[in-house]
Design a protein that fits this description.
142 residues; alpha+beta; 5-stranded mixed β-sheet; 5 strands; 30% helix; 24% strand; globular
Length: 142
């Protein structure tokens, strides 16, 4: 298994994995949004190759000493082979190299089946209320 930084040629593979794992489609999955994340910090978007094929993806970001990751997904046919664990460990290593002292992840409340996986990696459930608002571009500023 190889864990490496994302390349644009991986886009079709990871979007297929996101669809197959049931991750809802959001604006963060568009090529433009992913390209912006890559421009911001390409070393924090990582993929796993298993037997020469893209098998998983994780997207991370840093805010000061806090690291965040999201969109972790592994090809359903390859789950249980340690791919997700290796992706998280590789991203955590990059976080540590950059001075991150705490990592946060958000899990959809309807996706509680992943909690044992994260717990096995040392993550604890913390109760937060997350508020969200979608901003639309101002036509005058374009």
């Amino acid at each position: 298994m190889l864990i490496r930084s994302f390349r644009l040629g991986d886009y079709a593979h990871i979007t297929r994995i996101w669809e197959e794992t049931g991750l809802e489609r959001t604006e963060t999955e568009t090529l433009d949004a992913l390209a912006k994340q890559l421009a911001w910090d390409s070393e924090l978007v990582m993929v796993a190759e298993y037997e020469g094929e893209v098998a998983g993806v994780i997207v991370g970001t840093i805010d000061g000493t806090r690291g965040y990751f999201y969109r972790l997904a592994v090809n359903p046919a390859l789950q249980g082979h340690g791919i997700g664990r290796k992706l998280v460990e590789a991203l955590e290593k990059r976080f540590k190299e950059r001075g991150v002292t705490r990592v946060f992840i958000m899990v959809n409340q309807d996706n509680k089946k992943v909690l044992p996986f994260y717990s096995s990696l040392g993550y604890e459930v913390k109760e937060y209320i997350t508020l969200s608002k979608k901003l639309t571009p101002n036509k005058d500023s374009e």
